[in-house]
Amino acid sequence: xxxxxxxxxxxxxxxxxxxxxxxxxxxxxxxxxxxxVTLQESHGRxxxxxxxxxxxxxxxxxxxxxxxxxxxxxxxxxxxxxSIWLQVIDEIPCxxxxxxxxxxxxxxxxxxxxxxxxxxxxxxxxxMTEIREDEGGSVVxxxxxxxxxxxxxxxGLELQAGELILSPGITISAGEISVLATFGIHHVAVxxxxxxxxxxxxxxxxxxxxxxxxxxxxxxxxxxxxxQVIEAGGEPVILDxxxxxxxxxxxxxxEALHAYDMVVTSGGVSVGDFDIMGDLVRGDSVxxxxxxxxxxxxxxxxxxVKDGKLLFALSGNPGACFVGCELFVRPSIRGMMGDQKPxxxxxxxxxxxxxxxxxxxxxxxxxxxxIREGVVYAMPSxxxxxxxxxxxxxxxCLIVVPPGQQGMKSGDKVQMLMLR
Amino acid sequence: xxxxxxxxxxxxxxxxxxxxxxxxxxxxxxxxxxxxVTLQESHGRxxxxxxxxxxxxxxxxxxxxxxxxxxxxxxxxxxxxxSIWLQVIDEIPCxxxxxxxxxxxxxxxxxxxxxxxxxxxxxxxxxMTEIREDEGGSVVxxxxxxxxxxxxxxxGLELQAGELILSPGITISAGEISVLATFGIHHVAVxxxxxxxxxxxxxxxxxxxxxxxxxxxxxxxxxxxxxQVIEAGGEPVILDxxxxxxxxxxxxxxEALHAYDMVVTSGGVSVGDFDIMGDLVRGDSVxxxxxxxxxxxxxxxxxxVKDGKLLFALSGNPGACFVGCELFVRPSIRGMMGDQKPxxxxxxxxxxxxxxxxxxxxxxxxxxxxIREGVVYAMPSxxxxxxxxxxxxxxxCLIVVPPGQQGMKSGDKVQMLMLR
Lengths: 420, 420
Prior knowledge:
Two copies of one chain form a homodimer.
Chain A: H1 18-26, E1 34-38, E2 51-52, E3 62-63, E4 67-70, E5 84-92, E6 106-110, E7 122-125, E8 129-134, E9 137-142, E10 152-153, E11 164-166, H2 174-182, E12 187-191, E13 195-200, E14 205-206, E15 217-218, H3 221-232, E16 235-238, H4 246-259, E17 262-266, H5 276-282, E18 287-290, E19 295-296, E20 302-306, E21 309-314, H6 318-336, E22 345-351, E23 362-372, E24 375-380, E25 397-401, E26 413-418
Helix pairs in contact in A: 1-6, 3-6
């Protein structure tokens, strides 16, 4: 069992910078299949088609008020002392089109959202009018000049026909759904959610419904990863945890790479005697991309590829596993759905507390964002050893602490990767 | 058809401030039913139980490295010139518990995550050791003092038994799922998603799959609202749009209030001739809470209650409808799921462009957040008339412009309500 650690390949790993590893991976990501869903099912999905306006919007001259459609010229010179009176020649509820034309001296009663009749060039709201009945019907009185275009939304104010509105890769939410419905797009092309197989390795793992045993822990990473995969837009498939058995692991990984779009494992990537995922990626069954990243936590984060499909072997430490998934798995899932910005959003902020841990690797410190007087503060979430699980729930960002000999001080500028 | 608008109740509405209306509504919100879901189904749901740690975490003294469990005292005085050699008396993979005790002069090979054996008080990593085989087995050599507790995570570092970890009303995501799995909580009590019936009113509405017709528009608000309801955690139920017919609307609203937890409508709340929702809430079938809010867009936003259930009658203008849903419907849904912070998160920021529109009502301007050098900028999204639909998709916040005689300038401090 004695190792000559200086000649053993598992100790001699070349550390890549995070961005180098990310761009290495991006070469293996191609946009996946699409499927059609109904508009109502499209919330939260990723658009897979370009949407251009099939017609201008609004597509008719729309009244912005309940009132009277008039000709502006008719109101020239009128004032509190000098009312003008217009013959009301039609009533126009929403959804109907008047066949009358507003000629000088006439007006039409009109509702918000209705089509303004020919001849009219403005709408005056009810509250600025008075009504009288005479033998010929109603007349409406005005005491103020109404400028051309008042309360009248012109055709194409928001969009011209043919204008590009939505591009593939965006996440569909309320605003996008509103656009799709407006243009009658009742079935939408979206990217199929990449199916991501997830399993943990390690003989210490109990399933979540087993009673606790000495020296063992429950398999929490699998469920955490499943949640992260859903958040990224993927469909997690939880597979049984694998005991520390290399040939079994190899078989399970190959099966999963064949059946699913991506495979993510946790555990077994360190330098221990049973670190089977580390052994596996150094073997012939997959092509290793990297097995060390210049980051903490998660320096042992590993990736490999087989038949064009990605295998991510993340650390078994919950904190390291979480970070590895956000930095590498998430952008891979987003990329398969055509997201043009697949990485976590970067913010700049002010470090809200001293952070003394130093390292020659970049550190991704779990943190919480606070906004005070318009300034972004990044507050470290507390103990952030790679093995620590509890602070994940309290974090909405990863604070990027660059490598260096000294820690950072409260008030220093920091880069933040936003988790939500 | 002539109105005496000065005596007509639909023109004489008392405008409430947004926060007054919100607190009025909150009196009608009670926490809803709960249901059990599996851990895997719990992502995105709202927790309905208190979770305290049933045992300390970690629940055993855990090795933080692959290496050797030792007694710190044995390494006192050792240096590069003065190795000490310890007899390796056991090998401890993860998940197993050693029955040996580390006595002076001995060590146990141990893997990351494994239980540290009795007698040991530190772990030294492989990379700091050398191994020799002698007749009695392996001995491990060290050249440095290893302090007590090194690479050893004590019992309860993260959590003591009984410590409160999660409270009802939080949204379950990766970090929470990790906690639940760790403590073996494989079924979770969550709040049932409130079922929210949604319909639009207006004879101008085409269904989303109908061809365009002059003067008519497609019913987009219903789908937009459904998306907002999902985002808030509710379950939308889309009902058929209602033509401008008061008695039909009254019947449909009553049916929906009976069958669902909440009803949201769009359209028909202005002062026009066919504003049936406005007429309906002024009638006897429901108890009106308010029908005017001192805000733009959406001043006609209306709420009523019947048999303890809330009816929100929102403006038919897309922008006003969107804002009304975020300010009133969303917190009602969140409140029914025990969320202690049901309202949109408030941020402070710097207005990124002049905003010249003024009003005697508070204005909720759709905007986009930009972070520059750690400072939050709120950029108005463009045309934000209440009838405008297109900018909803480009917005991640509502910029709060207080009532006043003059507009706001680029560089002014503003309050923002965060949409995402």
